[in-house]
Specification:
Layout: H1 13-26, H2 30-46, H3 51-67, H4 74-87, H5 89-110, H6 115-126, E1 131-137, E2 140-146, H7 152-168, E3 171-179, E4 182-189
Antiparallel strand pairs: 1-2, 2-4, 3-4
Helix pairs in contact: 1-2, 4-5, 5-6, 5-7
Amino acid sequence: MVDMARKTFAAREDLLNRISELARERGYTIYDMVNEALEFAIRAYEGGSSPLKAIEALEELRAMKRLGLVPCFERLWHEVVEMAFKRSRQEVLRLWSEAGEWLAKLYEASHRDDPLGRLLEDLRRFTWRAEVEAERGEGQVSIRATGPALTEPHATLFAAMLEGALRALGYEASSKEVGSGFVRLRAVKGRSS
């Protein structure tokens, strides 16, 4: 049985004020809110994480859902991509390019201040089996992706998606290198191919 005795502890005033506001807005007592927060923190720490990392993971899952991304077994994903690429290369390239265009339009609509910057940031967050790096200059962007999971078909399709996204944002590829394990793409704003 859990001992229901109460203890007093100290916290920053701004935190106490905010939790008091949140409790009032939700119809909870401060006691309930503090206990829920402490239970969450304990679960996170006992699970080998921290409350901040747990919240970041939840935010990433929400962002992935907003983007229409779905979890999939990695081996299944790789096999299906390889089969589709072998059977209908041009059609699959077209689909990945269109997916990139759609993604860029989504970022333009939701991140008007810097859609390219936010897209690049999320590519770094959500491309788990490859490292994505990007450099931006005046009217140009350079993107590199490297990793052992980027087989030649995966790298080619990833490059097609990047090109589609960049094209939708007003960039055109000025150079592209794709091979097993890597993608290097440079694009210039307003350049026509």
